[in-house]
Specification:
Number of helices: 10
Structural class: alpha/beta
Shape: globular
Strand content: 15-25%
Bound molecules: adenosine monophosphate, fe (iii) ion, zinc ion
Helix content: 25-40%
Order of helices and strands: EHEHEEHHHHEHEHEHEH
Largest sheet: 8 strands, mixed
Radius of gyration: 18 Å
Number of strands: 8
């Protein structure tokens, strides 16, 4: 059984429509795929309808934008950005739904600022165009990157990130994210399970230490993404060991974004037994079986 538990659609910063994800998964020989758009469940319904037709099992989820301050609450410490995969939670849970709304509003504000900064420096980008292209998606830097590609400023989304949009880059603007521990608890209360996404993706910026992952485990975290393209072999080894020590599940996923990234669906996979345990611990919504 081939299981890929992390994929984005055009409901956030992927390029496949939610209704196309299950068919793509099927074509890639995948049996179970998770839809995990950033801070939104907007693609759930369309993906679920398509999954039933494509004969693929769909795990409904989201990737929540979180932050954590290390160093025992030192007020001067900079928060570290972390992504939290949340699976099978109740989408109607009011507290979690409210946090998703806040996170999406933060995304809007932050993209607006980034586009303003770019335009002020003479880059031919317009907020109205970027938003129109996003089409109501949970907006993010890849949408700005695509606008830069469309304007001929850069050749690829990757080049836009490398030159202008990466964390600490000339046009990077931070956004206010949800506290990691609060997020873990909220998802649990909504019947979901959580997996820390690409915790050691070092090229994206600062990453969390083992003590923080242990604290998240104590708060109710269920797993960590071990096999991810942004993880070195050594870091995968570290994470596997840490997961075993802390009683966390270790997953593997592609973090597919369609044309916005080069990683194909099924590039990394999750063990069937790990998948079964994840599902067994969730109660918010069911997996959509064909
Ligand atoms: P945001 O959610 O707006 O902070 O943007 C983060 C998203 O940008 C990630 O989820 C990835 O989809 C994408 N991303 C981050 N770094 C890169 C990169 N170096 N090249 C291409 N896409 C990236
Ligand atoms: Fe993304
Ligand atoms: Fe992520
Ligand atoms: Zn992702």
């Amino acid at each position: 059984m081939r299981i890929d538990l992390h994929a984005h659609t055009s409901a956030s910063d992927g390029t496949d429509a939610p209704e196309d994800l299950p068919g793509r998964a099927r074509a890639a020989g995948i049996d179970v795929v998770a839809i995990t758009d950033h801070d939104t469940t907007r693609g759930w319904e369309r993906a679920a309808t398509a999954a039933a037709r494509a004969g693929v099992t769909l795990v409904r989820g989201a990737e929540l934008s979180c932050a954590v301050v290390e160093g025992g609450g030192d007020a001067t410490a900079e928060p570290i950005t972390v992504h939290l995969l949340a699976y099978l939670f109740d989408p109607a849970d009011p507290d979690l739904a409210e946090q998703r709304r806040i996170l999406r509003r933060e995304r809007e504000i932050r993209v607006e600022r980034m586009v303003e900064l770019l335009a002020a420096d003479g880059f031919p980008v317009e907020l109205a165009r970027v938003r129109q292209q996003a089409g109501g998606a949970s907006i993010g830097r890849p949408h700005v990157a695509r606008a830069l590609v469309a304007a001929g400023v850069v050749a690829t989304v990757d080049e836009a990130f490398d030159r202008y949009l990466h964390q600490g880059g000339p046009y990077y603007v931070p956004k206010a994210d949800l506290d990691l521990f609060t997020a873990v608890r909220l998802v649990r209360r909504a019947g979901g399970v959580t997996v820390l996404a690409h915790p050691l993706a070092r090229r994206r910026g600062r990453v969390v230490d083992a003590a923080t992952i242990a604290a998240a485990a104590a708060a109710g975290l269920t797993g960590v993404e071990v096999d991810h393209t942004d993880h070195s072999p050594a870091d995968r080894g570290l994470l596997r060991e840490l997961a075993a020590d802390l009683g966390l599940l270790g997953t593997g996923s592609s973090d597919y974004h369609g044309h916005n990234k080069t990683v194909p669906l099924g590039a990394e996979l999750t063990e069937p037994e790990v998948y079964r345990q994840l599902v067994a611990r969730a109660s918010g919504v069911e997996v959509v079986a064909p």
